[in-house]
Structures are given as structure tokens and as C-alpha cells.
Design goal:
Pfam families: Spermine_synth. Catalyzes the irreversible transfer of a propylamine group from the amino donor S-adenosylmethioninamine (decarboxy-AdoMet) to putrescine (1,4-diaminobutane) to yield spermidine. The structure is a single chain. It is built from 14 helices and 11 strands. It has 2 domains: about 240 residues, Growth Hormone, Chain: A; about 230 residues, Rossmann fold (3-Layer(aba) Sandwich), CATH 3.40.50.150. The chain is an alpha/beta fold and about 550 residues long. It is elongated and about 90 Å long. The strands form 2 sheets. Strands 7-6-5-8-9-11-10 form a 7-stranded mixed β-sheet, sandwiched between helices. A 4-stranded antiparallel β-sheet has the order 1-2-3-4, with helices on one face. Helix 1 runs antiparallel to helix 2 and helix 7 packs across helix 8.
Length: about 550
């Protein structure tokens, strides 16, 4: 006959596997645990998406950053689950400590990563350098803590009411996955547009700390010793204090970090819902710089040189109807409108925020010649790929692709064979397509892949380049504007449906004479480029991007 155990003294946690002493009925307790799982899962996924979004924003190439963050995090979750097995006898205290630490690390992760980026700017080296190592460290730590939740939550659920392992796993994972769904949808559609990356992470951490602490200290407080309860209270109050202080100071931090990244002349900084837009300078004789997601897209020092090279060679033939893909800043349209005979210019820009700034920001509107006041200019807020799919054949005499560099993952579809096939269809038989294809000297494989892709789409190409002054103006993925990373040239490609376009400037009466471009220079640079052509490259497609 088995003797019954003597009752445990007050404040002593039950033995491993023993029933939890709850202040509510078991059914209510089980519901509260699953509700806590739901919230914590939502917070965990927000941390993951925050790291992916910030890494892609700071380093470009979102596919690589997502692969690294998620693979490291999933690996760490497995290690965390194994390591947490040792904490099962103290599941309540262990879970409370893990949630407090997860709230602190996850909530502060975006702030720490952006601070390192802003004040070091060193994201271009090997994976072992500081900022990249910090990204991996955060992914690893958050993954370990998220993985450690699972066995502890399973133990807490079983202590409330014993059931078969399969049923307990099903309940736990159902709450976890539904919470992940809510977190995954809340981040892009609610948190990011309303609060931004830094504040979203801080608030998510606060919610995580409150729910984790309330679940353990409220529901399982009788399973904790007095010392454990006080330690968890102190830990959670400290975490909430840190997160609240950071939230109060986050605006000052963002301003300081923005000045560290962009300089002291920042006038405009806004998140449009599609990208971050920053304008620096443009007043008191200082040149205007326009940054989109941290990449310098317009430089007052080099804007005319770049846009003259992009637009004027394409305008040497018929140019009654012109389509500009991208170019919401209005500078390509400014060069188009300098040519007589232009009846209509359609600008397809995905971000209406850029167009609003180009219309209403005085320095930027002066730089683009207030082109949006011209009745010939029509703006369409749409994705360039989707717009071209709806355009009737033979619509435009000139199509100008003033889009971000193909080295940015989100832009690769706009440099694909399918995209150029749609552009070819939109051209008249004698029409010309002008494509910005990135710097040749620093990324020759990317440039010649664009040329190969245009040819695969049935277009005849004429590549050319224009030397820059090393100012750092680039539409590509380079984050730094320092002289060591500044492109020394810009690569462009003219393409035609029926024959190879001639590299020339318009001889039409009244045609503008570019200040930074000559026909002889275009031809000479084109011949020099042909001698460096890379052969054997494959075309980039939607399902097989090669940039």
C-alpha cells in the first residue's frame, strides 16, 4: 500500500509533474495559458519580421537577409527547446524569466541594430564584422528564447489538467500558430505604418513582458517561492521601465541617428508606407540629396549629369508620347519636357509620397522645374510591372526606365525578361527604351546581365555609360555615400524593337543641348564598353533572378 505524501509547506513549488495550485478553475486556467501562448507567439513573430525588415532596409537584398535571420532563428528555436528541458521542474519561474528576457532583447533589437548602423555604417564587409554579427546574435538569442517557451508551456498546461500528449500539443500549437498569424499581419498593416520599426518593437516588447509576467505571477503564483515572485516582479518592472524610457526617447534617438547617417542638413524625413524618404539640403546654397530607404537617389551635384544621360539619347527619334517608369522625383520628366514635340508624358510611380514631395517641397520642385504643373504630365500611382501589363500595344514612342538598381531584391522583377517583354510591346515599332542598369565599373556582371535580358526579350541593345565625379550618387544598393564606395560611372542601355538604336542626340530644331553630354563622348564610351562585354551570362526571369 502506497502512503500518501504529506502536504507541502506554503511557498514550496510542487514536484515535477504535480498539479498546479491555481486561483481559478482548471478550465479557466487552461484558457488563460492558451491566450498567453497566442499573445507571446504574436510578439515572437513580430520580432522575427522586425529583424528581417530592418536587415533588408539597412543591407538590401531582402531574400538573403530573410534567409539568414529565419534560418538562424529556427535553428536556435530547436536548441532552445532542448535546453529548456532542464527547466521543466521549475516551469512557471523559468517561463516568467524567459518572457522578461525575450521582451527586453526583442523590444530593443531594432534600436540596437539601427544605432550600430548609424554610428558605424559598416555593413559592407564580411559576416564577421560588428553589425552583421549583431544581427546574427539577435536572431540567435530571440530564437533560443522562443524555442525555450514550448516545453515550459507544455509542462504548465499538463500541470493544470493532464491529457494525452497529442491533444496537449495540438492545443498549444493551434494557439501558437493563430497568434503567429495575427502578429504576422499586424506588423506590415498596423504596426509598421502607424508606429514605425523602432516604436513597434518597443511596444511589442512591453506587451510581451506584461502578458508573460501576468500569466506567471497571476495564474501560477502559488507555484513560486516568495523569492522567485519578487525576482520576477523586479525583472518585469525593470524591463518595462527600460522599454518605456526608450519609447519616450525614441524620437530624439531617431533624429540623432538620422543626422549620423544623412548629415546635419536633413529637412524632411517620413515613412510613406512604401519606403523611408529623406531629403537633405536644398536650401542656403546647399545641394539637395534625396534618399529612398537610405539609398541616395538624387544628388544636386550630379542630378543633371545622370538624367541627361538617361533621357536625351532616347529622345533622338520620335518622342510624341513618353512613358517614365519610376522617376517620381520629376527630374527625368524635366529633361523630357525640354524637347519640342512632346505631347504627353506618363509617369508611373509606385510611391505617391515621393510625388507629393516633388510637387510641394520647394527646393525639390525647383530642381525638377515644377514639371507636375505642366498639363502634359500625367501621374499614375501604380507598380511599373502591373501598369505595363495593362498598356495597349504600340502606345509609346519612348519608354524611360528610371528604376532602382537591380541589385535591390525588390527591383529584380523590373529588370526581368518578362518585364522587358511588356515594355517592348508598349513601344511603337520605331520606339526606344532607355534603361538605367547600374554602375559598370563596380558591378559589371549586373550591367551585362541587364543587356542579356533585354536581348532575350527580343530587343536590340546599344549599351553606353557616363563617367561620374565620384560624388556617391547611385540608384543602387550601396548604403554609404563615402568616396570609397561612390560609383565612378553610370551604365545605361538603349533598346529598340526592330533595330539597334543609334547613340546620338536630337538634331531637331529647338532641341536642347545637354550641358554634360556629347554625341562623340557617347559613341566613344560605347565602343570602350563593347570591348569589355561579358559573354555567357543568362537572362534574368521572374522565377530565376540573376542579379
Amino acid at each position: 500500500m502506497i502512503e500518501p505524501h504529506a502536504p507541502a509547506p506554503p511557498g514550496t513549488p510542487p514536484p515535477w509533474g504535480g498539479p498546479a495550485r491555481l486561483p481559478v478553475r482548471p478550465g479557466t486556467g487552461r484558457f488563460l495559458v492558451l491566450a498567453g501562448v497566442f499573445v507571446c507567439a504574436a510578439c515572437g513573430l513580430v520580432y522575427e519580421l522586425e529583424l528581417v525588415a530592418l536587415a533588408a532596409y539597412l543591407m538590401g537584398d531582402s531574400v538573403t537577409q530573410a534567409s539568414v535571420v529565419l534560418s538562424v532563428m529556427v535553428f536556435a528555436m530547436g536548441i532552445g527547446s532542448l535546453a529548456a528541458k532542464r527547466l521543466r521542474p521549475h516551469a512557471a519561474a523559468g517561463f516568467g524569466a524567459i518572457e522578461a528576457l525575450l521582451a527586453l532583447v526583442g523590444g530593443c533589437s531594432a534600436l540596437a541594430l539601427y544605432a550600430v548602423f548609424a554610428w558605424t555604417g559598416d555593413w559592407g564587409g564580411m559576416w564577421a564584422n560588428g553589425p552583421r554579427a549583431l544581427l546574427v546574435a539577435f536572431s540567435l538569442t530571440i530564437g533560443l528564447l522562443i524555442g525555450a517557451e514550448v516545453p515550459l508551456l507544455m509542462e504548465l498546461i499538463q500541470r493544470i489538467r493532464r491529457q494525452d500528449a497529442g491533444g496537449a500539443v495540438a492545443d498549444l500549437f493551434a494557439a501558437d500558430y493563430v497568434g503567429a498569424l495575427v502578429g504576422g499581419l499586424a506588423f506590415p498593416f498596423l504596426l509598421l505604418p502607424l508606429l514605425g520599426q523602432l516604436t513597434s518593437a518597443l511596444i511589442t516588447g512591453a506587451v510581451n513582458a506584461v502578458v508573460g509576467g501576468a500569466l506567471v505571477l497571476g495564474l501560477f503564483r502559488r507555484d513560486l517561492t516568495r523569492r522567485a515572485r519578487w525576482l520576477l516582479v523586479i525583472a518585469n518592472v525593470t524591463v518595462l521601465g527600460v522599454l518605456a524610457s526608450a519609447a519616450v526617447l525614441v524620437d530624439d534617438f531617431e533624429r540623432a541617428a538620422r543626422h549620423a547617417v544623412y548629415g546635419q542638413d536633413v529637412r524632411v524625413a517620413l515613412q510613406t508606407g512604401i519606403q523611408e524618404v529623406v531629403i537633405a539640403g536644398g536650401t542656403d546654397g546647399r545641394p539637395l540629396d534625396l534618399f529612398l530607404d537610405g539609398r541616395l537617389r538624387v544628388s544636386g551635384r550630379e542630378a543633371r549629369r545622370y538624367h541627361e544621360a538617361l533621357v536625351h539619347p532616347a529622345m533622338s527619334g520620335e518622342h510624341t508620347r513618353v512613358l517614365i517608369l519610376g522617376g517620381g522625383d520629376g527630374l527625368a520628366a524635366r529633361e523630357v519636357l525640354r524637347h519640342p514635340g512632346v505631347h504627353r508624358v506618363d509617369v508611373v510611380e509606385v510611391d505617391p509620397g515621393v510625388v507629393r514631395l516633388a510637387r510641394h517641397d520647394p527646393p525639390l520642385s525647383r530642381l525638377n522645374g515644377r514639371v507636375y504643373d505642366d498639363e502634359r504630365v500625367h501621374v499614375m500611382t501604380d507598380d511599373a510591372f502591373g501598369w505595363l501589363r495593362a498598356v495597349p500595344p504600340d502606345t509609346y514612342d519612348v519608354v524611360i526606365s528610371d528604376l532602382p538598381d537591380p541589385g535591390i531584391t525588390a527591383s529584380t522583377k523590373l529588370y526581368s525578361q518578362e518585364f522587358y517583354g511588356l515594355a517592348r510591346r508598349a513601344l511603337t515599332p520605331d520606339g526606344i527604351l532607355a534603361v538605367h542598369a547600374g554602375p559598370v565599373s563596380s558591378r559589371p556582371r549586373v550591367f551585362w546581365t541587364v543587356d542579356t535580358t533585354l536581348r532575350a526579350a527580343g530587343l536590340r541593345t546599344a549599351p553606353y555609360r557616363v563617367q561620374g565625379r565620384g560624388s556617391g550618387f547611385t540608384a543602387g544598393p550601396d548604403r554609404s555615400t563615402g568616396p570609397t564606395l561612390a560609383p565612378q560611372d553610370w551604365g545605361f542601355i538603349l533598346a529598340g524593337r526592330e533595330e539597334r538604336p543609334a547613340l546620338r542626340l536630337s538634331a531637331e530644331e529647338g532641341a536642347p543641348r545637354p550641358a554634360t553630354l556629347t554625341e562623340e563622348g557617347l559613341i566613344a564610351d560605347s565602343w570602350a564598353l563593347e570591348g569589355r562585354r561579358m559573354v555567357g551570362l543568362g537572362a534574368s526571369t521572374l522565377v530565376h533572378p540573376r542579379y
